[in-house]
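Folding problem:
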Amino acid sequence: MQSFVSLLQVVAWSLVGLAVVSTAINAWRRRDRHRLDIFAFVAAIFVNKWITGSVGSTILVVGSTSRLFLGYFLLRLLRHFREVSPTLLNAALVLASSLSIAGLFSPRLFYGRSDGAIVLALAAVFTYGMAVFFVEAGRTAGVTRRRLSLAASGTLLFALYFILDGLSRFQPAGPVQSNIIRVLLYLGLIAYCFAFMTPRRLKQTWQRAEHANYLSRTAERDAEERGLKAADDLFDAASRSVGNALTVVALRPVPDTGFLIVQAATERALLNLTIVLRDNLIGRAVATGAAMVGRVEDSEREISDRLKRFGSKVLVAPIASETHRWGAVMVVQRRGSLFPEDDLLLLARLGRYAGTALDHALLIGERRDRERRAADRRLREVESRLALMLDSIKDYAMLIIDDGGRVVSWQSGAEHVFGYTRAEMEDEPAAALYNIEAAEFAALLDDARRRGFADREGWCRRRDGARFIGATVIRPLTGEPDAPNGFVAVTRDVTAQRDLEDRLRQSQKMEAIGQLAGGIAHDFNNQLTAILGYSEVLSRDLSPDDARRQSVSQIEKAAERAAGLTRQLLAFSRRQLIEPVVINLTQLVNDLLPMLRRVIGEHIQIQHDDRGGSLRIRGDRSQVEQIIVNLAVNARDAMPEGGQLTIRTRSAWLDAAAAGRDVAPGPYVRLEVVDTGIGMDPATKARIFEPFFTTKEFGRGTGLGLATVYGIVQQMGGLVRVASQAGSGSTFEFFFPEAQAHETAVGKAPAAELPRGDQTLLLVEDESSVRTLLQDTLERHGYHVIAAEHQAAALALVMARVDPIDLVITDVVMPGGTGPELVQALEAIMPGVPTLYISGFADPVLGQHGFPKASHFLQKPFSAGDLLLRVNQILTG
């Protein structure tokens, strides 16, 4: 027993010493009231032990009376939970000081019963402190609750220790009782250490438990309900866990607005209060996403004055997720908190949970809104298509209507348009034909009588209930004075016309996107040409063992990757010049995968099965990329809830039976694109390659994607096969003729093998960095270069020369005139001069003047070797 007590003593006082040092450091760093009070209390325990452990009767008496300082510092701790009168605190301080001084001059006054009375009085103070700690622990939650419970337990142990120690002054205690007194003391010290200096891992465990409790209370609700009740749940949790005098929850009505509206508050007068976010305490917390402690006066002016009567300090935590900052939760503490860091951490975590709940509710609401709009679009598309199907040869429906709105005469055109026979419609109300109520139709007739005509464009109804957009003009009948009054109505079905107008707008939008993509590619490829060219110059100027060659090589690789991205952008916008080359299909698919993942989204998994190895075909790279991109986008639309897209590349042999009459038997490369989407029924599958046929929602598809894919494959001499069933996904198989073994792609020529020449070249390029690079490259290989930045400068230089020019190298799009326009002007001066066009993309300008041969066009970015080889190819024929 004695060894256990000794071990407990060592542990307890070691922890107390550590607590004194730790609380002293925290108090010195922060210098706020709660840390100073904790340090004073822990230090008083340590000092009292040192005094009572000293030798000398006077010191022992002072140690006994100085215990009253423990009561004083305990009362200072309780100020954070209860209103403690300053008079009481001063009285406790004066009493402790007076008794300690009296003990120095009259030690005999505090032996025996007097000393016992002091200890028992101290026990009463600790008993009161224990009750306060337990009550406050029951009102809070999380880490604060556990730390207050430990503080309450330590105070209870100290109260028992003082009671037994005080009684021992009236009747000496035996060995067992002495050991019990010491155990109570040491256990109380350990409890205080864990309360005021809680280990980080233990606090994290308590925090996780509280977070789990909060989430379990809301787990049974669906995501939308959690979002609707997020403010109330946060208010309840914050009031129960952190709240002191006032708790307020304020949210933005919609994301990213500049103000908050109070949704829940302890003070009902604050409900629906608008708080404009500025660079104040609440605004900074919301903007930075960090929880903060500050004064009430630092809050936004709309609420700061209303909070002053509840306290001076306020804790503010943002209600935020990774994507949105929804608002803030505020807690005003009248007397502060013993553990404000724990309160702020718990408040911040609760704010993140509430922000996530609001995010989920927003996503669900947006999804439902999208589904509703999609359903409306599908309905309009079905109605429009049905109206087109029921359209007849005769486009106009003419009918005579009397003053009461009934049909008097029904022409054959009306029968074709509306579907009713003459017998069915004579003397029947005409309002139902126009899908409106009788009162609204009567108002339309009154308007025609008053103005001489009335026009209406809106939905009309056929005999079978189908609707179409009808353009109707109603005019009153004029005749003899005693003739019956009436109206003539002429209705024309304009559904097809409106649909064509929508298609035109869609086509114009796609054309604008393509122009934007082409413009970006043009400028970007100019910069890449300069980067690649100068890096190649650096690489060739450096010796093979120069360490900087590795850095230059990395620059070249990065520029080539950027060029690949630009090429993919041009393929997606269908603005790449057709230039058949030998393509490694497996590598092309691997290069496209990063862009495909961005295009189709993270909800669809892409798998590339390339067990076929290196598979080579001959074709235009941009067109092959366009085939894969179109199929990937279609697969994405067929898998709105997610799925898997598999791309396989294989070698294949088509015999006469498999090839049929479409292609010749022989070796082929098979590209297979498989999705797990909704699939197609036989009727849809039979029409998927028809131009303008689309299965996408109204307004989203042009009906040209798969038709373009089919045309490209046919142009390459390939074969297309499609397998699909409704609900079972789709499989597209493409068979491309395999490139012959002797066909190889053009690579980068070594510096020693690059061709040289001595001809005179005219270089016209508006980008100065590209112009300087090309001029320097050509001149270094023997050519005489005349450089100009635009058409006018080029023409002036040519007019001033006597010697002929052997080759014109010109950009296509330049300020002051295009490349083809420059060539036309030069034809009058130098007939038949060969031309090499260089451009960042397949410009519409070339389409207007006729695309040149592939050997007379060089796509940016290109290397010095590409330029020199192409120049030599043109000059030597």
About this structure: Confidence is low (pLDDT under 50) at residues 53-63, 389-393. The first helix runs from residue 2 to 30. The two ends are 108 Å apart (CA to CA).
